[in-house]
Amino acid sequence: MSSSAQPIKTVTIIGSGLMGSGIAQVAAASGHKVTVVDQSQEIIDKASASIQKSLGRVVKKKFPDDSKAQQTYIADVMSHLSLQTDAVAAVKSADLVIEAIVENLDVKKILFSSLDKEAPSHTIFASNTSSIPIKDIASSTSRLDRFGGLHFFNPVPVMKLVEVIRTPETSDETFSALESFGKAVGKTTVQCKDTPGFIVNRLLVPYMMEAIRLVERGEATPRDVDTAMKLGAGYPMGPFELSDYVGLDTTKFIIDGWTEREPNNPLFSQSELLNKLVAEGKLGVKSGEGFYPYNKK
Ligand code: NAI
């Protein structure tokens, strides 16, 4: 590991959705100068409000019964953050650009190819993609050595892990800078090569799919599988509760991509039951029903 990597101070995050706003929050809270970019003023206003709300939860734990300290902390974190709609302008002074936009290769490539022309040569690019090969996204740029993956977990302020991904072209300096950034925002980092699902999803998605297949074969009910895995394996959630929480469409999207890439891998095979539920709009907690019914808010 090289020690010559410059520490990352200025970060631009493209995409202010669920993941982008969470990454922005932890980066700003750890003293980085953060710019967040999204497509419209309306979207970034929403993101700003959601970051402030999330910080409100943080300060209640951090400074219970001290509303002055709570307000000072929120104001300090927010002072490290700016939000805007011009991605090109936002990368001009960035040490690191983290992309957290829609999970679509073509859209990500168009974005990175335009940013590549505008960002300084030292700027490192990273994607937070869950399922697209980093090398495919990086191919839209001329900085393959300064490109890697930073895979955060939802909800970012709570989940303690970041998977740091390297392609064969990622330089040691880049990898070391990405790892240091992950630690600087308070996460534990693990290293992984650019393989489907990296570590967590590579194990988790086939596990959830096999749970669904087990139910499809009529061997047990979702409720009994969940009870078994919670009480027998010590997992905090069973695979069906987890699938409903993650979103059945998200699980299907990931498995579809893997089936296409490795059609003969039995771990990546399709499930009729999952496909049927998604086709019926039963997507889990967010749609009010998945494997289980939920009270719609
Ligand atoms: P999201 O849908 O909540 O947010 C995406 C945001 O990107 C939206 O606000 C959208 O307006 C914006 N956007 C789309 N195209 C853009 C463009 N060209 N320029 C600027 N902004 C643009 O999505 P989410 O869940 O935050 O996911 C983002 C990325 O993070 C995806 O690649 C996803 O695979 C990955 N990811 C998602 C996780 C999750 O649990 N949701 C976990 C880990 C990674």
From TrEMBL:
NAD(+) binds at residues 15-20, 38, 103, 108, 130, 154, 286. CoA binds at residues 54, 61, 130. It is an enzyme of class 1 (oxidoreductase). It holds the Pfam family 3HCDH. Pathway: Lipid metabolism; fatty acid beta-oxidation. Residues 197-294 form the 3-hydroxyacyl-CoA dehydrogenase C-terminal domain. The record marks 151 as: Important for catalytic activity. One of its GO terms (biological process) is fatty acid beta-oxidation. Gene3D superfamilies: N-(1-d-carboxylethyl)-l-norvaline Dehydrogenase, domain 2 (1.10.1040.10), NAD(P)-binding Rossmann-like Domain (3.40.50.720). One of its GO terms (cellular component) is mitochondrial matrix. It comes from the Eukaryota. It catalyses: (3S)-3-hydroxybutanoyl-CoA + NAD(+) = acetoacetyl-CoA + NADH + H(+); a (3S)-3-hydroxyacyl-CoA + NAD(+) = a 3-oxoacyl-CoA + NADH + H(+); (3S)-hydroxydecanoyl-CoA + NAD(+) = 3-oxodecanoyl-CoA + NADH + H(+); (3S)-hydroxyhexadecanoyl-CoA + NAD(+) = 3-oxohexadecanoyl-CoA + NADH + H(+). Keywords: Acetylation, Differentiation, Fatty acid metabolism, Hydroxylation, Lipid metabolism, Mitochondrion, NAD, Oxidoreductase, Spermatogenesis, Transit peptide. GO terms for molecular function: (3S)-3-hydroxyacyl-CoA dehydrogenase (NAD+) activity; NAD+ binding. Homodimer. Interacts with GLUD1; this interaction inhibits the activation of glutamate dehydrogenase 1 (GLUD1). Belongs to the 3-hydroxyacyl-CoA dehydrogenase family. This is Hydroxyacyl-coenzyme A dehydrogenase, mitochondrial.
